[in-house]
């Protein structure tokens, strides 16, 4: 009967992979948008579209959970992983949206660095998701998760540095409020990649 | 033996429903308090009382978990759902408490709109909790959860707008700090309703 | 065969206890550092070291999960508890690091009080972890968790008071931004102790 069983499982992996691709695409677009920042950049709209598509995929996963009898992992783990992946994209979109709202005129070197860490973390998330199809690769999956943890620490350090510079050079408190939030949102997007890694690790650990 | 079994299960539903009623009551009182805001409003005290009662119910649920052999859902899911429901009420009370502490003299139209979204979300939480007694209604429960997700997006948009207006009209940075926090706390209360929805969805998905 | 089984279980408890000791040590060092605050205090370095060791232990727990067939609790609960314990230490270190970055010259009475609540909560976490070896003590474990919840409420009240005083006495918005964040980070460390308590309670409830 496995010929009916396997396709069902495959479909979940397909959806997770599509979502992982979107995480990478959103993170990449965010990095790109910063390289020549302009509140009217068409990339603002592009990131909004990615976020919208990600929402649809998230609901497709939830819906499929309710229609599928046999799932590759525990149902609540699929639900949790899908929610966390959606959070990453929401946060990237939220950061851009806030920058747009605040009419940011120029980006900082530190934000570009944070976006770069986020992009690296997104790539590691994609690799971990791709490896998830084959639980025999659990060792490798764990290594990607450790890499995501390492990147989260790296992001923390860039953020620390960014905050130090912000408070020592900026004298306008309103600019401090805005930039503090932009850095925090970007750092939270990196944290959310770590939450995805934790969700993946938790699945691997169960099936380990 | 089901005559001893069912009453036990019922009791958990009774407690969750009492808690859902309190979420609606707290959200409704919050909306009401804003309509004629006054730091000395007796509603400040009322919301504190609701929060206190919610704490007692949360501990009653936890205590019952430790004394009950057979539970309607997995024990950890009951624990998780109860914690998340408590969080919503904590946050509503925390927002009012912060407004009181900051001696806010006048509320904004945007805060009233956010409170309205929160109230709608609280109503949807109650409906989902009521439907939880009958797992055959899983389709309907999921629909309430989708509605809560939709409201969370709506809340995000109101908050975006509120922040934009705040930064473009307010020139006193201390007022910006206060109002930014008030908006964020209210938006987090709406987020917490989504966490409740996720906890419910996760239970439904397991039993689907 | 229990002579091979038990040692394996013991090892997880050893690691959790080592981590609980570090939570207490970090919270205690934080309290100590505040008593004679000085950005060049060697305790800043000490807390960074504790955080680094905690990271190593966290990975040791994760690694052991992947090599151990039989675990004392569900694998995902061990993973979750270990993550949450790590978060407490991360936050203490993060608070000190931010104070250092902001070149804080003098600490407030309210921060010392918050640090004291955090230290009490850390002690209760340690007691709960110690009691976890013997599930027959579930009643007592729950009591420690209730104590941690109570301390979290106490912390909220101190923070409320601290914020009120900050906004009514400080006129420099940049100082307000810095102190608001320092109070929030400390309060979040106390919240994270509550997350640890929730993770413990959830384990006890499953095995209750």
Describe this entry's structure for a reader.
The structure is a homotrimer of 208-residue chains. By secondary structure, chain A is mostly helical. Chain A has a single domain, classed as Methane Monooxygenase Hydroxylase, Chain G, domain 1 (Up-down Bundle). Chain A has six helices and no strands. Chain A has helices at 2-35, 42-67, 75-101, 109-131, 138-169, 173-207. In chain A, helix 1 packs antiparallel against helix 2 (42-67) and helix 2 (42-67) packs antiparallel against helix 3. Chain A is globular. Chains in contact: A-B, A-C, B-C.
Summarize the structure.
The structure is a homotrimer of 208-residue chains. With 208 residues, chain A is mainly alpha-helical. Chain A is 85% helix and 0% strand.
Write down how many β-strands of chain A occur, each being a DSSP E stretch of 2 or more residues.
0
Task: Give the topology string of chain A: H per helix, E per strand.
Answer: HHHHHH
Global shape of chain A: globular
Structural class of the helices, strands and pairings of chain A?
mainly alpha
Mind telling me the CATH class of chain A?
Mainly Alpha
Count up the domains of chain A: 1
The termini of chain A sit apart by 25 Å
The major β-sheet of chain A equals: none
- Strand share of the residues of chain A? under 5%
Poorly predicted runs of chain A: 1-6
> What would CATH call the homologous superfamily of chain A?
Phosphate transport system protein phou homolog 2, domain 2
**Tally of individual helices of chain A:** 6
Mean pLDDT of chain A comes to: 91
Oligomeric state of the chains? homotrimer
**Relative helix content of chain A:** over 70%
Radius of gyration of chain A: 18 Å
- What is the name of the CATH topology of chain A? Methane Monooxygenase Hydroxylase, Chain G, domain 1
């Amino acid at each position: 009967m496995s010929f009916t069983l396997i396709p069902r499982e495959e479909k979940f992996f397909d959806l997770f992979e599509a979502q992982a691709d979107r995480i990478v695409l959103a993170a990449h677009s965010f990095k790109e948008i910063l390289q020549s920042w302009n509140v009217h950049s068409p990339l603002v709209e592009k990131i909004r579209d990615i976020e919208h598509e990600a929402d649809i995929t998230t609901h497709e996963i939830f819906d499929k959970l309710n229609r599928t009898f046999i799932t590759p992992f525990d149902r609540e783990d699929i639900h949790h992983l899908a929610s966390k992946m959606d959070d990453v994209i929401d946060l990237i979109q939220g950061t851009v949206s806030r920058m747009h709202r605040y009419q940011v005129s120029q980006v900082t070197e530190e934000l570009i660095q944070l976006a770069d860490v986020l992009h690296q973390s997104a790539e590691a998330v994609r690799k971990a998701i791709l490896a998830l199809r084959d639980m025999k690769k659990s060792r490798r999956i764990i290594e990607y998760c450790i890499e995501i943890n390492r990147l989260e620490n790296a992001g923390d350090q860039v953020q620390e540095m960014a905050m130090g510079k912000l408070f020592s050079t900026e004298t306008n408190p309103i600019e401090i409020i805005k930039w503090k939030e932009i850095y925090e949102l970007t750092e939270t997007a990196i944290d959310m990649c770590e939450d995805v890694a934790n969700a993946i690790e938790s699945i691997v650990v169960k099936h380990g």
